[in-house]
Amino acid sequence: MAYFLHRIIFIALVLAIAVPSSLGWSWTPGTAWGKPEIAKYLKEVCSNTNKTKECWYFIKPQLNRFDGALILELAPIARGLVQEKAHEINDKIDRLYNGSKNENMKNKYLSCSQNYNDAIAYLQLVKISYEKRDYDNILIQIDDAAQELECCSHQFTENSFDPAHVRNRNNEFRIYLEFLKAITNSWVWESRID
User: Fold this and answer.
1) Helix-helix angle 166-193:52-59, to 10 degrees
2) Is there a contact between 73 and 92 (Cβ–Cβ < 8 Å)?
3) Between the CA of residue 174 and those of 75, 181, 190, what are the distances in Å?
4) DSSP of 116-171, one letter per residue?
């Protein structure tokens, strides 16, 4: 039993040293990073999404939000950014609902608005899970938010009438969620080392 525990601890220490340095960045607990280090790290996070270039396109203008943050603060900051984006898109959808005269479009907008409200609620649960370091539920909650997005996406398929380009907003939010999932995977790993 003791041999097994020693072996696991040894493997964990080797991984803790080898994995971060193999990704091209170094991490010292309690050290704040400047813009160059954060940009490099966030670009690496974007490379772990399905849409690397699009992710970096959306995240790069937000670098000031992360400036001076400790590494373990980056994922919670990213969650706040993603939640703000969800609110922004939901506000646009609400305005479309209020301005539409077409009952079919109003129903689609209402359904999507409800989906975004639910996604925002899941992102709030992610915040609580970050605070509690509830590693097992964080990624599930992000996936639940993504599932709400998929429900909205079904309202605006390729061939459906979409004068306000809600489909494009959904694709944008999907990239933000992928970014959040990628940075959270990194955060979970780093939190367990800390």
Assistant:
1) 90
2) no
3) 17, 11, 24
4) HHHHHHHHHHHHHHHHHT-HHHHHHHHHHHHHHHHHHHTTS-TTS--TT-HHHHHH
The C-alpha angle with vertex 91 and arms to 168 and 182, in degrees rounded to 5, equals: 55
| Residue where the block lists tokens 């370091």 | 133
Tokens 């800390």 sit at which residue?
A: 194
User: Per residue in 112-148, pLDDT tens?
Assistant: 999 999 999 999 999 999 999 888 899 999 999 999 9
CA pseudo-torsion sign 134, 137, 143, 147? negative
pLDDT tens sequence across 143-187: 999 999 999 999 888 778 888 899 999 999 999 999 999 999 888
Q: What angle do CA 109, 113, 119 make, to 5 degrees?
A: 145
Mean pLDDT, the chain, rounded, equals 84
**Global model pTM greater than 0.70:** yes
Least Cα distance to 147 among 179, 121, 119, 114 occurs for: 119
